[in-house]
Design a protein that fits this description.
- The protein is α/β, with parallel strands linked by helices and 244 residues long.
- The protein has one domain (3-31, 44-186, 233-241): 3-Layer(aba) Sandwich (Rossmann fold), CATH 3.40.50.150.
- It is built from eight helices and seven strands; from the N terminus they run ααααββββαβαβααβ.
- The protein has helices at 3-12, 19-22, 33-39, 45-57, 127-137, 166-172, 187-194, 207-224, and strands at 66-70, 86-91, 98-99, 112-118, 138-149, 177-184, 235-241.
- β4, α5 and β5 form a beta-alpha-beta unit.
- α7 (187-194) runs antiparallel to α8 (207-224).
- The chain is globular, with a radius of gyration of 18 Å.
Amino acid sequence: MNDVQANCQDVKNIFTVPRENIRGIRPPKLNLGFIWEFIRDGRTPARAMTDQAMRSLLPALEGTGEIIELGAGGDYYKAYVQPDQQYITSNLFPGSDLILDMTSLDLEGNSVDALVSVFALEHLFDFEASFREQYRVLKPGGRLLLIVPFMYYYHAAPDDYFRFSSSALDKLLEPFDIIVRQPLGGRWLLFAEFLHEKKEMGSSLGSFSRLLLRCLALPFLTCALKNHDPQYAVGFSYLCEKPQ
């Protein structure tokens, strides 16, 4: 038995949630409680919707194996998995568990159980190399959770190059088996997002003006709580497997 065959056998017993149960995962929704958080200038609607997507999809990666988050901005999503789950953060910069370049991963081929990438690929000019690398390092049967922006504002960290439509993602992910494909939000969420001015995101408006804009956004946010529209999605979430 070669290493690839051994890894293929191993990965079958790694994940807690079997593949046949993943397809039934429904698109994320914001609850009514988020309206109060929004009024108090909490998370942006796009961030809240992304967090809900992570809460619903991350359990599909949990089990006895390791999860590596690529391009992590911290360990924010580590709190979303079970306490005994091995969750490793990585980035090009110090502060993560691993220093990894997403376009040239310093990892063995067919060695990784699960990968996570959340709003990271848009910061890579050579994003296609990252897709190839993620496919290379995953074990056969390994899983990838990917969330990328579509209709989203410019946010350099340190640069911001691209946005991804679902048709582009389908092409880029052709080597994988796509299990879940979900739009995040729609036009109403976009309107609410546009009106959520945050000081830490560069807004020069005063606190009262920003509150007034959030109040104006409430009708749009209420409509956005349960609506998704791929034509106006803030982003897309994908859950994929590397074929065995």
